[in-house]
Amino acid sequence: MHTLVTILHVVISIALILVVLLQAGKGASMGAAFGGSSQTVFGSSGAGTFLGKMTAAIAIIFMLTSLTLTYTSSRRPSSSLMEKVKAPAAAEQTIPAEAKPAQSEAAKPLVPAPVKK
Fold first, then answer.
1. Percent of the chain whose pLDDT exceeds 90
2. What is the pLDDT of residues 96-108, one digit of tens each?
3. If we measure between CA atoms, which residue out of 15, 41, 37, 19 comes closest to residue 28?
4. Residues 59 and 20: beta-carbon distance below 8 Å
């Protein structure tokens, strides 16, 4: 499902780019070059053209696929390479038998004898 929406999103984005590039600008008519344009920036521009309506429809589909991809990617279980690595076993530091100090009378700490007066 995620792959299908991703492919649809890419196709819609390319279509949106092409439709926007096919449209003529607001002042693209020949009369606008000589100052005879009756179109205003914020005034009525008449009925919308087919390419204008198509741009709006494709833009809405583009936004919906973007939101869908965002939602599905946040709901996917995240995977990490570190999850597959085993934790190292607790290494016990053992001292070889030869290097262990002997627990004899000589190995006990020496305590000085009390001084007699």
1. 32
2. 666 555 555 555 6
3. 37
4. no
Domain residues of the chain, as ranges?
1-23+50-73
DSSP code string of 18-74: HHHHHSPPTT-SHHHHTT-----SSS---SPPHHHHHHHHHHHHHHHHHHHHHHHHH
Q: Mapping DSSP to helix (H, G, I), strand (E, B) and coil, where does residue 9 land?
A: helix
How distant is the alpha carbon of residue 7 from its chain centre? Answer: 18
Return d(Cα 68, Cα 5) in angstroms, integer: 8
d(CA 59, CA 19): 10
What are the pLDDT digits (tens) for 68-88?
A: 999 988 877 766 667 667 766
Q: pTM of the predicted model, to two decimals? A: 0.52
C-alpha to C-alpha distance for 52 and 96, rounded to whole angstroms: 84
